[in-house]
Amino acid sequence: MDENNDTSLLVIVLDTNPSQRIIRENPHHLTQCLDSIVGFANAHLMQKAHNKLAVLACHHHATEFLYPNPGKPLDIRQVDGQYEQFTLVEKTIKQKLARMINEAPRLAAPTESLLAGSMAMALCYIARINRNKPAGVKINSRILVVTGSNECASQYMTYMNVFFTAQKQNVTLDVCALDKPLSLLQQGCDITGGQYLKLPQLDGFLQYLLWVFLPDPQMHPQMRCKLVLPPPVKVDYRAACFCHRELIDIGYVCSVCLSIFCKFSPICTTCHTVFKAPAPIAAKPKKKKMKT
Fold first, then answer.
1. TM segments (predicted)?
2. Which residues contact 73 (CB under 8 A, 6 or more apart)?
3. Which of 76, 85, 129, 142 is at a distance of 20 to 30 A from 50, taking alpha carbons?
4. CATH class of residue range 6-226
5. In 10 A of CB 86, how many CB atoms?
6. Whole-angstrom Cα distance, residue 35 to residue 11?
7. How large is the C-alpha radius of gyration of the chain?
8. Which residues in the chain are classed under CATH 3.40.50.410?
């Protein structure tokens, strides 16, 4: 395949849930992160004229596309001295996010982010772009997740489905954690060959994005190998139980649907298969000493 026909598709999933600690403590952090995301997105488009971009906002109640705008593009006034495409990206993302936040229902209590569903939506968008691509064009797709939320084990099955679907579709998953380490998303990066970064500080966020995530791992596979990237973290491959949604070291696995439980259950709550109770282990009889 001619390298000139290769196109890099970057889908950014930005967590905008107001329940995130960094946003609760200082709402201005969302504006700071958004400006860095816009700068990073424009840097991706600047690398090659054929590069494509999509940005999704993951809120507490829904996931919406910030860019491109479905249907008719927004009426954006051109800024003197700025490339027209960059102006369109910046204005569209900010206007759509402001509208989404204003129309969102108010929170009575902190809620989890819909990250797993947002990544599944990104995979569907990538599949549609690949299906409608012109003949002879190769599209290298990747997803970048930017979040400060704590991962929820209740979405464990959706996470796993997304990770292995991305691996099958040859989609790289990169993750930038703004607050706490995310073990499940670390697994996704390791499965798909992506890069995981726990941001040490929010200052310099754009520099971290350009340094770690700007090179495309599929179009330029040697680029990331030559960069002095942060040391890889040890991936925690523990699974979450289906009963309490907690990560466990040892558990019981259903032989029919492969559901995982931290304690034995005579009936699988997922597929309703009935199991026999495990029999107690019989003690070995002690050998009698022979009298001499």
1. none
2. 88, 92
3. 76
4. alpha beta
5. 17
6. 16
7. 23
8. 6-226
pTM for this model (two decimals): 0.82
- The closest alpha carbon to 50, from 9, 83, 82, belongs to 9
CB 126 within 8 A of CB 172: no
Read off the pLDDT of residues 31-70 as tens digits, 9 standing for 90 and up. 999 999 999 999 999 998 889 999 999 988 889 999 988 7
pLDDT tens sequence across 93-136 = 999 999 998 888 887 777 888 899 999 999 999 999 999 988 88
Q: How many CB atoms lie within 10 A of CB 236?
A: 12
- Residue 76, classified by CB atoms within 10 Å of its CB into exposed (0-12), middle (13-18) or buried (19+), is middle
**Alpha helices of the chain — where are they, by DSSP H?**
21-25, 28-47, 84-103, 115-131, 156-168, 183-192, 205-208, 221-226
What are 104's two structure tokens?
């969102």
The Cα–Cα gap between 56 and 93 comes to 9
If DSSP codes are grouped into helix, strand and coil, which group holds residue 92? helix
DSSP reduced 3-state for 86: helix
- Spatial separation of the C-alpha atoms in residues 160 and 188, rounded to whole Å: 8
